[in-house]
Design a protein that fits this description.
Strand 2, helix 5 and strand 3 form a beta-alpha-beta unit. About 35% of the residues lie in helices and about 20% in strands. The chain is α/β, with parallel strands linked by helices. The protein is globular, with a radius of gyration of 20 Å. Strands 1, 2, 3, 4, 5, 6, 7, 8, 9, 10, 11 and 12 form a twelve-stranded mixed beta sheet that branches. It is built from eleven helices and twelve strands.
Length: about 350
């Protein structure tokens, strides 16, 4: 069992997992206290303002909430409004900048742990608005719109902060959010609605939207040929996923009717030669190999010619509630189209 699988099991709600993580609970308490002290320190000042209008997107838990597709959606919206977006990332893992460049070709993408330096570089490259991916805990930087992302799938897991659970911060941190987006991948719509209702009771007056991050279509990793999800119905599929929540990816493919064998890797997994050979063998024996956008950027260009190409499962953001609230909040930041 990989380290990632052990962590996901440990954060689960089985009776054995609950007992196994008990030794981590004191450490979680220390972590929680440190985060509260940090939040209080920045509440007193010392916040830097970046040189362009700034929209921050982030989550309360560790990975898997859909913040990257949501940040890309926001950047694409800004581009449609005539504002050149600059997407700023810490650059961890190396794959997310490549994903953003594919999702939003018109954006300036800058990976730099120093967000001030990244903002200056983005402005020099033509950006007129900044979208900060994974920045909810970036307390030292001011933002004009702060979007918190909460996953319906992660809601039912361990309630503890790191390392006993997946939470970077707990619900009281939502006081910093101008808008909350509840996302779901394979959870039912009713589960997302229940999470939204609970959050609304905690944060009355804060707009809460719901987005379904649905698989929209498949694309050949090299050819770019589009296919409908229906082609997977009744087929054997090897799903390779080096993401924070590979189980959700497998569930989405199963919902499309596929018989799925999941190859779950750690988030930001760097595919070695043995990994590539394993996928090539699967494709050569007749199984469809399906990967996420995040994995595709590391496999594209390395796939051998003459072997059936992997299919990239492309996610889309489908608003199920109050997507217009996010549009209105973005419009308030952007102002008239195209004006910096």
């Amino acid at each position: 069992m990989t380290a990632a699988r052990i962590v996901r099991w440990l954060w689960g709600e089985s009776p054995v997992a609950r007992v196994a993580r008990l030794p981590l609970v004191p450490l979680a308490g220390v972590y929680w206290a440190a985060m509260r002290i940090r939040s209080a320190r920045y509440a007193g000042g010392g916040v830097l303002r970046l040189p362009l209008p700034t929209i921050a997107v982030g989550n309360l838990s560790v990975g898997g909430t859909g913040k990257t597709p949501l940040a890309a959606w926001i950047a694409a919206y800004c581009a449609r409004r005539g504002w050149m977006p600059g997407i700023l990332l810490r650059g961890y893992g190396g794959d997310e900048p490549l994903v953003h460049r594919r999702l939003v070709p018109k954006a300036v993408v800058v990976a730099n742990p120093d967000r001030v330096a990244g903002a200056i570089a983005a402005r020099a490259a033509g950006a007129r608005v900044l979208v900060l991916d994974d920045a909810y805990q970036l307390l030292g930087v001011a933002r004009d719109l702060n979007v918190a992302v909460v996953s319906a799938e992660s809601w039912a897991g361990s309630p503890w902060p790191l390392p006993a659970g997946p939470w970077r911060e707990r619900w009281e941190a939502l006081h910093r959010a101008d808008l909350v987006v509840v996302t779901r991948k394979h959870a039912p719509a009713s589960a997302a609605a229940d999470v939204a209702a609970r959050l609304a009771r905690r944060r009355p007056g804060t707009p809460i939207a719901i987005a379904w991050l649905a698989l929209e279509h498949l694309e050949g990793i090299q050819s770019g040929t589009r296919s409908g999800l229906g082609m997977l119905a009744g087929q054997d599929v090897v799903a390779a996923a080096g993401i924070a929540d590979p189980a959700s990816f497998a569930a989405q493919l199963s919902d499309a009717g596929a018989r799925v064998q999941l190859l779950a890797y750690q988030d930001h997994h760097a595919y070695g030669r043995n990994d590539l050979d394993r996928l090539v063998r699967a494709a050569a024996t007749g199984s469809y190999v399906v990967v996420t956008e995040k994995d595709a950027v590391k496999l594209r260009g390395r796939w051998p010619e003459g072997t059936p190409e992997p299919l990239v499962a492309v996610l889309g953001v489908r608003w199920e509630r109050d997507g217009k609230a996010l549009e209105h909040a973005l419009d308030a930041v952007l102002g008239p189209a195209g004006r910096p």
